[in-house]
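User: What would this chain look like folded?
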Amino acid sequence: MVSIARRNLFHEKGRFAATALGIAASIMLVLFGVGMAIGIWNSMVTVVDHSSADIWVLNSQNADLAQGQSIIPASVIVQIQGLNGVKSATPLIYSTSIAENGGEKQTVQVVGINGSNGPVSPWHLISGSVASLSQNNAIVVDESAQMGLGKLSLGENLTIGGSTEEVVGICTDAKSFLYPFVFTSYGNAQKMCGINGNETNYVLVDAQTQDVAEIANEISQIGGINALPKQELRQNTIDYMLYKSGIGAMVVVFAGVGLFVATTIVSLTIYTATIERTSEYGTLKAIGATKRDMYKILIEQAFWPATVGFTAGVVLTLSATLAIASFMIMPIAISIQLAVAVYAMTMLLSVLGAFLSIRKVNKIDPGIVFRA
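Assistant: Here's the prediction, encoded as structure tokens.
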């Protein structure tokens, strides 16, 4: 019975190829849309994920990293440090600025830190030294900045926010949405971003106890600030990107349209093949084929185009992702888990899409063989 399914599909190679190509395009739409959304919101919280702080303190009007810049008085640091359960409180500059190199300009995400052993430091360093950030006007730059600023090398000077900075390190995988990260000292970051000495963007708190939520609630009693456990801030940022920014709607549209088109293509292909081979199915039933045998044929006819199309779709998506990454900063996360989930959904919908054909086969009268 298995060979009958393959024969029906591969008998007309052109039709099978067109079906697989249509499914591949649909799968590419799904993977690219969902992968881009996941990549965007993951990049929005990458600085949180790479921080060791238990609590993030921000402006009382902010509850995430996506809705505007947080500005709080630097004086709250002393108040926070005086609270029970607080081990340390470290200010952090996390703001955008404009970098220039040889006439080229690029918006960058400046991360101002206190020392190389603070709650946030450059990650995935590929050259240079984090310790060198203790020098005046020293920066570590993510390699993706080269797309907008040209080739960068250690010892080279960049102008950021009107200040001349020396590249002492280059890292990778440190970017937020469309902006490469630039790590520097706290004071230097204030200068780059035009933030005066009496203000900061965030305060990162290490707790002495395990009751982080209680300490965060106590810190929040200080006027004008909001203290959130690390994971809560992370989730708030993702929730905003998913439900309020429009990215969630984009995912629904991309995934919905892609899966609908793939299901429709498989359904029509199987149904057309069933109509064309009504007499063959009648013959099979006449010689004793059971409903289970017939279902196996139809399900396999859904399996092959869905699998071949999915494989081609993954290849196309990965190729497009690599091509995009070569000329622009666009975070697209295509994980094995995502691919497996999309494949499972594709197979499920393809099998369900074969339902029309199953009904048609069930209605075939084996007597048509003898009447013919």
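The chain has two domains: 2-43+246-371, 71-200. If you want, I can go into more detail on any region.
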